Amino acid sequence: MAENEKKVHHGSVKILEGKVIPCKMQKTIVVEVRRHKVHPVVGKQIEVRKKYHVHDPLGQAQVGDTVQIVECRPISATKRFRLVKVVKKGA
Fold first, then answer.
1. What pLDDT, on a 0 to 100 scale, did the predictor assign at position 23?
2. Which pTM does this prediction carry?
3. In the chain, fewer beta carbons within 10 Å around the N or the C end?
4. Is residue 70 a contact partner of residue 84, using CB atoms and an 8 Å limit?
5. Which domains does the chain have, with CATH numbers?
6. How far lies 67's CA from each of 16, 17, 19, in Å?
7. What is the average pLDDT score of the chain?
8. Measured between alpha carbons, how far is 20 from 42 in angstroms, rounded to an integer?
9. Cα(27)–Cα(53) distance, rounded to whole angstroms?
10. Comparing C-alpha atoms, which of 56, 90, 54, 83 is closest to residue 68?
């Protein structure tokens, strides 16, 4: 697993860790989660990146921060995760 991506399952709830990428929305951040998987034919490791829209009502996460997010009920058309905590502040 990548150093900035951890998957923990508590029942059916996903807890992910990723990095905040630039976004100019209110109460919403975009988090990029990276993971590595093995290509089924070639056998090489491939880095897979996915972006999630995350609900951040207090605006505590900034660009470059490493954050922990958790799956929740749909908050809007694109938001399905909410911010748990800021793990590490960015530069």
1. 81
2. 0.82
3. C
4. yes
5. 8-84 (2.40.50.140)
6. 8, 6, 6
7. 90
8. 31
9. 10
10. 83
Q: What is the pLDDT of residues 1-40, one digit of tens each?
A: 445 556 665 677 889 999 999 988 999 999 999 999 999 9
CA distance 32 to 81: 12
As given in the structure block, the two tokens for residue 35 are: 């993971």
Other CB atoms within 10 A of residue 54 CB: 27
Query: pLDDT for 66-78, tens place per residue?
Result: 999 999 999 999 9
CA trace torsion 88, 86, 73, 24 (10° rounding): -90
Residue 21 pairs in a beta bridge with 30
Q: Tell which wins on pLDDT, 2 or 50.
A: 50
The β-bridge partners of 31 are 20, 52
Both tokens of residue 45?
Answer: 């490791």
27: DSSP letter: S
Nearest to 67 by CA among 39, 42, 30, 41: 30
